[in-house]
Design a protein that fits this description.
With 252 residues, the protein is of the alpha/beta class. Helices cover 40% and strands 15% of the residues. Strands 3-2-1-4-5-6-7 form a 7-stranded mixed β-sheet, sandwiched between helices. Helix 1 runs parallel beside helix 2 (42-54) and helix 4 runs parallel beside helix 5.
């Protein structure tokens, strides 16, 4: 048996030109996955792919505006055409006018935030799930900020999109028989998380049509904002991504 958890698996990671998205893509590749690095930032995406290939991994760039439905559909179809399947979809991209009050947020900013941070999650699920079901199963990990749980007056659009993302596993066609949180990974939101059983991560596992309904797991987690996370928090974030991808409970 291979020591690599994701040998012969294909992963799409959106928003992977930098930050947590890049680190997740790099780690998936290090674990044997073929990774599609999807981002609107072509230069950053190319740098992520270069980091992967230099380490002996397999990856390609997909310059994708996930706020555009046709672009997300093309991303999925090209991935299937090139690699034959999609096993993991990490919806990680976001855009938002951070530190902007509701009054100062323009309609263009609001629409763009919803398109990139929320609608892209729906689109990724919509187009990827049929291929996952056909192949016998897959994993979807959706990222949202802790601003979805503990907001502020200047995070209106961002918080709204993040809150909706947390519940997106169910309308994507998944059933959620149980949910749990990992409050220690998100101290600032732990009290809220325990009382509301909400989360900043939504992880859904799909199965083929012959199997039972897929389950959905929710895990509270610290997510990347406009600045880099401290190493210990970044590690916990990555560990939770892989806990979802491998079907294990979140790390504490």
């Amino acid at each position: 048996m291979s020591r690599f958890r994701f040998d012969n698996r294909t992963a799409i990671v959106t928003g992977s030109a930098s930050g947590i998205g890049r680190q997740t893509a790099v780690q998936f590749a290090a674990e044997g996955a073929r990774v599609v690095v999807a981002d609107i930032d072509a230069e950053g995406a190319a740098a992520t792919v270069a980091q992967i290939t230099e380490a002996g991994g397999v990856a390609r760039v997909s310059v994708t505006d996930v706020g555009e439905p046709s672009a997300v559909e093309e991303l999925v179809e090209r991935t299937v055409a090139e690699f034959g399947r999609i096993d993991i979809l990490h919806n990680n991209a976001y855009w938002a006018p951070l530190y902007t009050s509701v009054v100062d947020t323009t309609m263009e900013q609001w629409d763009r935030t919803i398109a990139v941070t929320l609608t892209s999650v729906f689109l990724g699920c919509k187009f990827a799930i049929p291929h996952m079901v056909e192949a016998g199963g897959g994993v979807i990990v959706n990222t949202a900020s802790t601003a979805a749980i503990v907001t502020s007056p200047t995070f209106g659009a961002y918080s709204a999109a993040g809150s909706a993302t947390c519940g997106n596993a169910v309308p994507s066609g998944m059933r959620a028989p149980r949910s749990y949180t990992n409050p220690r990974s998100c101290p600032s939101a732990s009290k809220w998380s325990r009382s509301r059983s909400m989360s900043a991560w939504s992880c859904a596992r799909t199965r083929g049509t012959s199997g039972p309904p897929a389950s959905s797991r929710k895990v509270a987690m610290t997510l990347p904002g406009p600045t880099a996370l401290p190493p210990s928090r970044k590690l916990r974030t990555l560990q939770s991504v892989f806990a979802c991808a491998t079907g294990r409970r979140s790390v504490s």
